[in-house]
């Protein structure tokens, strides 16, 4: 499934800034960064559960905010972009 | 249609910070803020075109980055949230 993960992590403390880096690193392990706090992720059920577990173990549930949207097929290709935003190649083209 | 608008605006200059505030204000006119740089927007074709025109006229296309994802029906209700993130009531329940 195709997911969009967006987050706000409270960075008013050194601990918060550490969490922010950790959240970004976790998301980098699962998908492509398209903005400062936005990742496009292709995942199956197992890797989504793994990511959710990792994120839950990382964030401060009283201050941080993570949203995970399930997108329709090809939404990554159909995203409308303005400015320097670009579509990302999540799947290599097949050469037969 | 249901849209998710995410943005990164270069805030290294006072002019950039002005653009950031303007982008947020434009999005506020069309939907609900769910994170610092993420808005959930319900729009018809006309208001989407209007928003795109306004955003294009506001951003610096060489530094800023806006992405607009079209979401499936009810995606705003089905969003998976961690921490303090909450689902947002875009449409009032009908009382018959």
TrEMBL record, chains A, B:
GO biological process: defense response to virus; maintenance of CRISPR repeat elements
Cofactor(s) demanded: Mg(2+)
Enzyme class: hydrolase
Entry's transmembrane regions: none
InterPro entries linked to this entry: CRISPR_associated_Cas2 (IPR021127), Virulence_VapD/CRISPR_Cas2 (IPR019199)
Single GO MF descriptor: RNA endonuclease activity
Binding site for Mg(2+): 8
Assigned EC number: 3.1.-.-
Alphabetically ordered keywords of this record: Antiviral defense, Endonuclease, Hydrolase, Magnesium, Metal-binding, Nuclease
Function: CRISPR (clustered regularly interspaced short palindromic repeat), is an adaptive immune system that provides protection against mobile genetic elements (viruses, transposable elements and conjugative plasmids). CRISPR clusters contain sequences complementary to antecedent mobile elements and target invading nucleic acids. CRISPR clusters are transcribed and processed into CRISPR RNA (crRNA). Functions as a ssRNA-specific endoribonuclease. Involved in the integration of spacer DNA into the CRISPR cassette.
Subunit record text: Homodimer, forms a heterotetramer with a Cas1 homodimer.
Family stated for the protein in its record: Belongs to the CRISPR-associated endoribonuclease Cas2 protein family.
Name of the protein in question: CRISPR-associated endoribonuclease Cas2
Organism name: Streptomyces buecherae
């Amino acid at each position: 499934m195709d997911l969009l993960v967006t987050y706000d992590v409270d960075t008013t403390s050194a601990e918060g800034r550490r969490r922010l880096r950790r959240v970004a690193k976790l998301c980098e392990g699962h998908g492509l960064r398209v903005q400062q706090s936005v990742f496009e992720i292709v995942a199956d059920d197992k890797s989504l559960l793994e990511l959710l577990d990792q994120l839950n173990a990382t964030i401060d549930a009283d201050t941080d905010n993570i949203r995970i949207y399930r997108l329709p097929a090809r939404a990554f290709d159909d995203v409308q972009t303005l400015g320097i935003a670009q579509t990302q190649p999540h799947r290599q083209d097949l050469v037969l």
